[in-house]
Amino acid sequence: MLTVATGNKAVAAAVKEAAPAVVAAYPITPQTEIVEQIAEYVSSGELRSQYIPVESEHSAMAACIGASVTGARTFTATSSQGLQYMHEMVNWAAGARLPIVMANVNRALGPGWNIWAEHTDAIQERDSGWLQVYVGSVQEAFDAVLMAFAIAEDERVLLPVMVNLDGFLLSHTMQPFEVARAGDFIPPLHLPHAIDPAAPGGYGTLTGPEDYFKLRWDIERSMRDSAGVIRETQERFARTFGRKYGMAEEYRCEDAEVIVVAMGTLGREAEVAVDLLRGEGIRAGSMRVRWFRPFPRLDLSGRDVVVIDRDYSFGFGGVLAGSLAAAGGARPFSVIAGLGGQEVTYEDIAGFVRERRPGEEFWFGVNGDV
Amino acid sequence: MTEIPREEYILKCTSACAGCGGTLSLRYVLKAAGRDTILVVPACCTSVIQGTYPNTAFNIPVYNVAFASAAACASGMSTALRAAGKKTHVIVYAGDGGTVDIGIQALSGAFERGTDFLYICYDNEAYGNTGMQRSGATPLGARTTTTPAGKTQPKKDLDAIVAAHKPPYMATACPAYPKDLFQKVEKALSYRGPTFIHILSPCPPGWRFSTEKTVEMGKLAVRTGMWVLYEREQGKVTINGPSKAAMVKPLPAEEYLRAQGRFGGISAEAVSRMKDDAAALAQRLQKEEKGIC
Ligand SMILES: Cc1ncc(C[n+]2csc(CCOP(=O)(O)OP(=O)(O)O)c2C)c(N)n1
Ligand code: SF4
Ligand SMILES: [Mg+2]
After folding, report:
1. Cβ contact (<8 Å) for A55 and B112?
2. In this structure, how many other beta carbons lie within 10 angstroms of the beta carbon of residue B235?
3. Using CA atoms, how far apart are residues A337 and A358, in angstroms rounded to an integer?
4. Which residues of A touch B84 (CB under 8 A)?
5. Interface contact flag, A195 B63, Cβ < 8 Å
6. Does position B227 have pLDDT exceeding 70, yes or no?
7. Domain A2-192+206-241 belongs to what architecture?
8. pLDDT, tens digit, for every residue of A295-322?
């Protein structure tokens, strides 16, 4: 069924298809529409979930943890300050190996108060043990949420998944998309370590260094295995629903001399820039990183690389640029752009490519024109 | 006659201090709750005394969770269990710090939402886990490692805060009165919705008394009126026998205070304020019991 809706509504529609047993969430701009829509589905009986209207994001994730450990499918959504407030429990969810799915609407962090798109909120959770995917369209938001449940709940993964969509640019932008009927795409959840009075035992008890170390390694092993599960799930999704996804979306990269790497809607904008540059005779291509955790292997060898980060790690640099440099030894031209919802057009991106200076960092709008 | 079951859910070899009132309390709580129970425990002494992974000294499932999050975690757990048609008791067993300080927001939220669970605060009147720092539940004049000269503020009135949420059942208790505690847990679990028990739990190293005196200290607290045993059932107050007797003929508060090293050097002014507060509470409860308020 083709429909037109915002990214937030698409997320809610996907949650309806996945039918989690428990949703616990707290409102925050620009995510609010997701929880409102889910509450509406629950109240009208279209979605037979328990909706827990918690009093904070810390409690939202705590409630998801309590529900999930009983073996119940669980969902929440947040953004920015909410994700930060939740931080302690975000780590807890992964450490406890609970396949919770969360939509995070990417928004800048205060101060000053700024409700517009930026990835720093989610990027700061990159080391928590959550899988992270960043989407570039309303359709992709819907599809990613459906797949997130299947991936998180796979016994080879059993880690939580965060689906990221850009504040306003996707959360509040109407686009046509197809509501796929989930059917049996997401198998029933079987949590092997579900809590059960018939099998008494301690969860999260004091753990010495040796065992703790093994448990941490087990998270990393599952994180590595998750790459294969993501691939399988995306292939199965393509066979079932006809839409194909990769770890990253490559655009006109085959013969490219320069590749733009970005995430979220900036990655889509980069594709328009690529077409413009090709028209000028510059052999450009783009790679939109979808899965940030596990981090993908990108083939950038022998090409110039322009990385656009909608995030920043103070005292270090753009996190995507830094990650690519560490993973592949690339010396990217690192552009910091779009913070706090700054507008970045395909023409701006084409400018970054034309004037690229490998190995340097450039703050768009601060360092002047390229 | 109430028969307290012989079955033990706290096995031998916990790492609790000798004479731990909190652990003694939990022993009775679990006997009353029975096998179909999940305990949710935030950071506190109880998270330590279970022992070290992969072993546990508790013979029921225990979900250990972050300090501020017990009530919210239990909220999710109870919701999911009820949705799956299960009647399993969900019991939070939290310290005073995890209740009156960092956990109060989650507690308030879970009660306001009508979560079906029992929240128990075992109150040793300080942060035991981290070495006896003050909490909002530390009484006036008590020395802790962060109030070396004695606390200058009175104990936070947790019960009034919980009562403001109008739960169907709430009570105070003390492990020096095990039958009373046992019955209160049974009663709390017979209700649907959020119920609450506040247990004064004498703590030998924290309060500085010798380990064989835990029960004596609990009895002194009640007999001096420094701790009142009562229930609030559907809003109706009942003062329990031992406290009723204490209200008629209380022992002097000094007998309780002098028995504990933490009150060493307490000012006469602080003692008199504590007596006034205790008298005011007794009066208020007596009035409420009679239905005059
Ligand atoms: C967010 C956070 N802050 C601080 C701590 C450290 N901490 C662990 S237990 C505890 C005190 C617990 O006191 P209480 O709740 O009274 O329980 P008790 O230890 O006395 O049994 C503190 C401060 C923590 N675990 N988490
Ligand atoms: S410090 Fe007090 S409450 Fe904690 S285990 Fe020891 S006796 Fe029990
Ligand atoms: Mg304490």
Report:
1. yes
2. 12
3. 17
4. 21, 70, 72
5. yes
6. yes
7. 3-Layer(aba) Sandwich (3.40)
8. 999 999 999 999 999 999 999 999 999 9
